[in-house]
Amino acid sequence: MISIRMISSVLLLMLMQSGAQCARRFRGGRNPQPRRAPPPPTYRADRGDTTESFPLDFTAVEENMDNFMTQVKNLAQSLYPCSAQKLDYDMKLNFLGNTSVTCNDGSAAGYYLKESRGSRRWLIFLEGGWYCFNKENCDSRYETMQRLMSSSKWPQTKTGTGILSPLPEENPHWWNANMVFIPYCSSDVWSGATAKTEQSGYAFMGSLIIQEVVKDLLNRGLDNAKVLLLAGSSAGGTGVLLNVDRVAELLEGLGHTGIQVRGLSDSGWFLDNKQYHCTDCVDTASCSPTETIKRGIKYWGGVVPERCRQTHEGEEWNCFFGYRVFPSIKSPVFVVQWLFDEAQLTVDNVQLTGQPVQEGQWRYIQNLGIELRNTLKDVPAMFAPACLSHEVITRNYWIDVQVKGTSLPRALHCWDRSLHDNRNNKAPPKGCPVHLIDSCPWPHCNPTCPTIRDQFTGQEMNVIQFLMHMGFDVQKMAQQQGMDPSKLLGMLSSGS
Question: What pLDDT digit, counting tens, does each position of 315-331 carry?
Fold first, then answer.
């Protein structure tokens, strides 16, 4: 008990000392440093120079360490404008030491890094951005999206948002981690391991880029890490599923057995389902997901997790689809997936712009939600809102979306705690859910879904307006459900 009080006192003294130094600088003390204004927060604008008081109740420490740490966090955040003077919000560009591992066009691959000295948590994020699967559509991609195939015009710095944000109000549980952003310049769903050839015209080295970044980071403090979270969105989310075990095996092979490797896959859980309308396979948007991956894996020289490869030998393309590769993954993975993913609907040739959808399209969209639910039911840690959207963890609204009253940052925090408690043979925390999936059947029936705007007017649409815009027939649906139309409208409005 005495040791706890001593720790508490030391923490308090350190924070108070920081506060005093901060106050002197704000009041024009010696050698005041120019302050870089942080990105505008949503609710701190009127804080100014007022002093906030956070008395610490040490009796709470004896009964509840979590409660005490909450008090410390409150005090630390009250001093945050002071610490922000020294913070550099941007991640800085670094090119790989191994120059033989390149982007599609042979330019140097690299990563953006914002170090957080003292933190033993690392977050490595894989960018998304579709892919190409033959010389023709890779040439077209290079003309229209060169940034996703070359590093020649990458900026020197990048500001993190969402789970990459250094602001605790935007990123409650990971804001102080070491942040790494790996730009996507391999067009291969982070799977390739092939150098540039005359026949292909491009290098496809996505998987090797991840490996080399990890090796580089070992010299930047990753060797002392406790947790490494490999995260990604869209093609990057699929890349997490393909590479998380490879990263864990790489670190273990290099002797870093104490680093806990985990995965966070956002909007990368695609289905190899039948398209609504079958069309000629010309580009990634018109081809069925199965066909593009079948062609792509050969063109890229793609590699997949070994256990999945053995299960699907000769048909390794199966391993690019979440529900097929997931059972073979050994590392803990948290899956984030919109039940009505816009990218999935695009490759399924369901167009949601212009005219209201037809009844057949509407049934197809509903069935997509059902199929996704079925593939996710055995995933222990997941967050699946019934929304029409794509990607979320790097969006500034990622803290607002909820499933069954739990936000995504809260669910990830619960997952962190459950993994920590399991390693220490503790019971999982109560009231801390990690398996969250919406049960309502329509796109945007969850009232916390991101705002949808009318493509032509730019006006925000509520749930009912959106469903009517899509051709939803309230009268007919109420009749099918055996209920009064006004009751159905009320349920839709509340997200029931």
Answer: 999 999 999 999 999 99
Q: Write the pLDDT tens digit of every residue in 101-114.
A: 999 999 999 999 99
Provide the 8-state DSSP code for 37.
Answer: P
Sign of CA dihedral 327, 333, 336, 341: negative
Report CA torsion sign: 141, 147, 149, 150: positive
Tokens of 351: 């167009």
- pTM (global) more than 0.90: no
* DSSP 8-state class, residue 194: B
Measure the CA–CA gap between 191 and 95, rounded to whole angstroms.
20
* Partners of residue 460 on adjacent β-strands: 453
Token pair in block for residue 440: 């309502």
Q: How confident is the model at residue 133 (pLDDT cuts 50, 70, 90)?
A: very high
Tokens of 80: 């945050």
Identify the CA nearest to 25 among candidates 15, 13, 38, 34: 34
- Residue 460 makes CB contacts below 8 A (sequence gap 6+) with 451, 452, 453
Q: Would the pLDDT of 159 be above 80?
A: yes
Count of CB atoms situated within 10 Å of the CB of 279: 11
Return phi, psi of residue 461, to 5°.
Answer: -120, 135
Which regions of 183-241 does DSSP assign to beta strands (E)? 227-233
Q: How far apart are CA 407 and CA 413, in angstroms?
A: 10
Instruction: Give the residue numbers annotated as catalytic, written as ranges.
Output: 234, 341, 390
State the CB neighbour count (10 A cutoff) for residue 74. 12
* Tokens 């941007």 found at: 90
CB 125 within 8 A of CB 190: no
Which pLDDT tens digit goes with each residue over 327-379? 999 999 999 999 999 888 888 877 765 556 677 777 888 888 999 999 999 99
Instruction: Give the N- to C-terminal CA distance of the chain in Å, as an integer.
Output: 48
Cα–Cα dist 44/42, whole Å: 6
Separation of alpha carbons 271 and 288, rounded Å: 10
Among 378, 368, 392, which Cα is nearest to 329's? Answer: 378
Pairwise CA distance, residues 317 & 33, whole Å: 55
